[in-house]
Amino acid sequence: MPTKILDLPDTSYVLPGNRACAGCGIGIALRQITAALDGKMVMTVPASCLTVLGGMYPIASVSVPWLNVAFPSTAAAASGLAAGLRATGREGEMTVLAMAGDGGTGDIGIQALSGAAERNDDFIYLCYDNEAYMNTGTQRSGSTPAGARTTTTWAGKRENPKDLPRIMEAHGIPYVASTSAAFPTDVYDKVAKARDIHGLRYIHMNTPCPSGWSFDPKDTVAIGKLAVDSGLVVLYEVVDGVFRLTSRSASLAKAGGRLKPVAGYVATQGRFRGMSDEAIASVQAWVDTRWAGYLARDAAEHCSSQTTAS
Amino acid sequence: MSAPESACAAALATASMEVMTGNDAAATAAKLARVQVIAAYPITPQSPVVEQLSAWVESGELPAEFVTVESEHSALTVCIAASTVGARTFTATSANGLAYMTEQVWWAAGARLPIVMCIANRAMAAPWNVLNDQQDSMSVRDAGWVQLYCRDNQEILDTTLQAYRIAERLHVPVMVCYDGFLLSHTMMPVSVPDAAVIDAWLPKYDHPLTVVDPADPRNIGPVVIADPRADASGEGHGGYMEIRAQLHGALLEVLDVIPKVDSEYGAAVGRQWGGLLWEHMLDDAEVVLVAAGSLGTQLTVAAEKLREEGVKAGVLGIRAYRPFPVAALRGKLAGRKLALVYDKALAYGYEGPICSDLRGCLLGTPDAPAVFGAVCGLGGRDVPVDQLAGAARRALADAEAGLRVRETDWINLHLEG
Predict the structure, then answer these.
(1) Which of A7, A85, A156, B185 is the most exposed place for a label (fewest CB within 10 A)?
(2) Is residue A4 part of a domain?
């Protein structure tokens, strides 16, 4: 059964006060991620917004072991932590969590991540996807959506983002999930489920960014929810190759699969200002095709596996 | 090599004499050191080191984690993270592999991790060349690692073992450099110490600087600002510059630790290698031939040839290039007529790196010799002994003609084809 919001643990390993921007989606999710692991963890983090959130020496804002590493090396560092803990007989003491942004994961970090996934090394990799290089001032990444203006796509990005969870699924790892920082219970449940699986577990987490997407910091959760309702972000998991929609995306599918229009989502954020009708229509077509694929997969894999089980 | 009088005769008696390549000597040392985590990526001429270690891990002869990473960048990253947890780690690479991991070379030193990495020295591309020179390790000499250069396969085995003791004593990473192919693929007799002797000499690594424990959470390697800053309880802590100064201080301390560890090894195992420097016929030498690595062995033959001609030549070998043994070099070279440095690398647009460093450290000291440079052996170019001697004759003639400054001499270069 999915966890309800009131049932989330009160324990927080994220201390009051950190250096993240107001309204940063990472902070909401990090509470659930660390709680789902009971703080029995070591996390490794590359150069990113999360580094900034973590604090500057000698003050830290998160009370779990945390190893900072170079930008391309997050997954390899997690492999090294897992190997080091095994070699010293401490592998049962904590879960290894790699946590990096979309650029650190899908661009500069994808080589090390692909290697670790092919070896099925024993750690959770969580990508918080704020859809651009936010820490360096909003440059486009491979995860930036089409139409978004960044400091390296002044007229709006032309390409749709790469599908990182699907790339990770192609490695044949035991667990792949897509979630959103605006759905803390979905984040919590997926990390808690991943905790009990061995091998490489990949969780992709959409993370609204007020400063990079240009919206009011009070609207982080509303915009994250709208992204799901509009189908730009889909909440799902793939356990041993079997796909199922979860949380809000599963409810949308159950209610007939109707999504809110992309145009409405685009209108909420300054980064899409000036986006042409053609460009919006093109993104809408991309969303519709993807959503139809997810619905078909959910029906074929999840619903049929349920039928088989009953 | 010299055996101290107090050499542990029992250790020598239990050692086994084997014939092996330099790469096998490095792998054998890593096994004797009971490394716990190995990560490496193939590159010529280093590959046989990790092939051998992989076979031992698979057969169960070496109980270690072997992570078959997808790049050198990840190889050193795995060692960084595993060493942070407290595991004894090993990797090896060459040339472009070392260049590819350069970011992590700096990271390992800045994070004060006692990683040992063997470098089978190879030329840097472009153009492609898999043969020996020392441009690769010289290019990262300033990163904060200890760099030790070996003359032969026995020294590779002994130095790799010594490297762990040096690294773990001062929390600094150590590169053990040996010439690709000339040593890495050349078979030589090597005395392999008994595992029990090494276990007693190099106990388990159990005192990492870093703490990775959910009951005592630490943020390791976070952003550090320029200036000192108070923690939450108001206590002041150093800024970036203080942390870097501590690394520099540790490396300077290594200058004392290298000879100590060498003599401790001598007492336990029965062999030592001169500590920071080694010498051959140096006592009365007026002309001192200086080099790092196996080139030094060739220079001993060149020096003997020059002696036959009446030139008082000797050899001073650089074993520790980083930290640079300034005081030892000044002591050995004061009063000589000439020091000729043979570099197998070049700071392009200037001169050989060891030559620059040596001239700098002797500048303004009493009775300093003239310091001239020669570059040789790039990309595996043959370095015949008579040409090494010829370069010494030319340098001596220049010094006797009163020159104190001279262009770099290129040995065995044929620009006309």
Answers:
(1) A7
(2) no
Rounded to 5 degrees, what are φ and ψ at B394?
Answer: -60, -45
How far CA B46 is from CA of B52, B106, B178, B344, in Å, comes to 11, 21, 10, 18
Q: Do A84 and B82 touch (CB under 8 A)?
A: yes
> In this structure, what CATH number is given to the domain that contains residue A239?
3.40.50.970
Compare all CA atoms of chain B with the CA of A109 and give the residue at the minimum distance. Answer: B74
Fold topology of B277-410: Rossmann fold (3.40.50)
Question: For residue A199, what are the domain limits?
Answer: 11-309
Over residues B220-244, mean pLDDT: 95
Residue A16 · residue A40 · CB < 8 Å: no
Query: Given a cut of 90, is residue A13 above it in pLDDT?
Result: yes
| pLDDT of residue A310 exceeding 50 | no
Asked if the C-beta of B226 comes within 8 angstroms of chain A's C-beta atoms, the answer is no
A70 and B217 in contact by Cβ < 8 A? no
Subunit contact B107:A78, Cβ cutoff 8 A = no
Q: What is the pLDDT of residue B7?
A: 52
Give the E-state strand segments of B16-88 in sequence order.
16-20, 37-39, 65-67
pLDDT at residue B181 tops 80:
yes
* CATH class given for the domain over B9-207+258-269: alpha beta
Cβ-defined contact of A84 to B83 (cutoff 8 Å): yes
Domain B277-410 in the same topology as domain B9-207+258-269 = yes
Check if the beta carbon of residue B332 is closer than 8 Å to that of residue B277. yes
| Mean pLDDT computed over every residue of chain B | 96
Write phi, then psi, for A237 (nearest 5 degrees). -145, 155
What average pLDDT score do residues A117-122 get? 98
Tell me what pLDDT residue B417 has.
66
Domain spans in chain B, listed from the N-terminal domain onward: 9-207+258-269, 277-410
Q: Which of A42, A56, A74 to mutate to test the interface with B (most CBs of B within 10 A)?
A: A42
B103 interaction partners in chain A (CB closer than 8 Å): 70, 72
Band of pLDDT at residue A308, cut at 50, 70 and 90: low
Residue A182 belongs to some domain of the structure = yes
Q: Which residues pair with B37 in a beta bridge?
A: B65, B89
Cα B169 to Cα A293, B22, B79, B143, B173, distances in angstroms: 59, 26, 18, 19, 10
Query: Diameter of chain B by CA atoms?
Result: 73
- C-alpha B317/C-alpha B326 separation (Å) is 14
Residue B7, sorted as left (phi over 0), alpha (psi -120 to 50) or beta, turns out to be beta
Kindly provide the residue ranges of all beta strands, DSSP E only, lying in A12-149, ordered along the sequence. Answer: 41-45, 66-68, 95-101, 123-129
